[in-house]
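Hey, resending since the last one bounced:
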Amino acid sequence: MSSRSRSRTVIRGGLVITASDEIHADVLIEDGRIAALAASGTPAAETFAADRVIDATGKYVIPGGVDAHTHMELPFGGTHASDTFETGTRAAAWGGTTTIVDFAVQSVGHTLREGLDAWHAKAEGNCAIDYGFHMIVSDVNAETLKEMDLLVEEGVTSFKQFMAYPGVFYSDDGQILRAMQRSAENGGLIMMHAENGIAIDVLVEQALARGETDPRYHGEVRKVLLEAEATHRAIKLAQVAGAPLYVVHVSATEAVAELARARDEGLNVFGETCPQYLFLSTDNLAEPDFEGAKYVCSTPLRPREHQAQLWKGLRTNDLQVVSTDHCPFCFVGQKELGRGDFSKIPNGLPGVENRMDLLHQAVLDGHISRRRWIEIACATPARMFGLYPKKGTIAPGADADVVIYDPQAEQVMSASEHHMNVDYSAYEGKRVTGRVETVLSRGELVITERKYTGHAGHGVYTPRSTCQYLN
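The structure tokens again:
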């Protein structure tokens, strides 16, 4: 261990906010971990001696964000996501996120191990912050099912399946049931992209035949009812298998209702939404001159009236997590692949840098409390994916992943200001209050008073335990 990482740091005078508490406290960091907390100004706090003192007076001291849904360097639609693990994790740090869980991909005809090894090779030595992996399962067979057991044992404890994208990632109900049955035995968590892809493909074909080629038709063919139907079906398959279920990027009122009903029945069913569904809408998809292509993602943006139910779901805990589904494609040269055919627009939005700030704005707008902000962005994703209390909280023994957050600073979100490797911002011109000032990852300064002081290779692969959020 380097002498630098053995140093002691004290963060003084800030308001420490976790999912459960708010306290004016000093935080002592030693050997990359939280060593102690003591109420500011008390004799206990005054005993904290350190090589480095960070003054957080008037600021929040919060756990680093955990973004449990990112796609760095993802191949999609003949191109690949524009953020590398290096650029993407650096941008995450700028936005106050200190851990990502990215998706390794099994291609049809290949093993899970081949996919996982390929993603390890992309990430290793390149990340500014810590990272873990989920596994996309595209080819369920006897060997794949055995491999799932091995992956759980080595800390890849969640598996994503798709009811969408026939011919690419799609799994049929039988394959989904088999994977769920296996996860019921090995403790893994199935994550589901819940849209009826078979039906959507019919609607895509019909829309294009009618000459409906603009980006807004992407939202019109991927109907709310086909998200709700797939969500319902996934829940019932999980119930048959006796397995927990995590539904990713929930975007619509009707899908939230399916989750709420299942949870009222006591089922271990969980839901995630993303900032784009909380802050953007089909109005963006309909922007003229092909600008709407910037907002093409799946599940798609919905009419604005769905936002109220998503916020309500976050308050009632029918939705537990806000992740980004960060999957950026540049407008020039990538999104433009779909000019004249919306079905060829690469699906995905940039957002890993914006999540913590947008959710702080939601606190100011009255949608959620400060502690709920930390719960849905830090603590629950860490618990859901087996990283807690190492990640997601500020408590003795936790990794010193800490953000000094200025709740008064104002900023205007813009591609000219962000650090994501993409040529547009999904939130261009949006004014928000609150901004990251300083970020520590395992006690090392990654952002220091709005300057990047981290480096590629600081971030390490982090194996995960099984879901810690079950009933």
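The chain has 14 helices and 18 strands.

Sorry for the duplicate.
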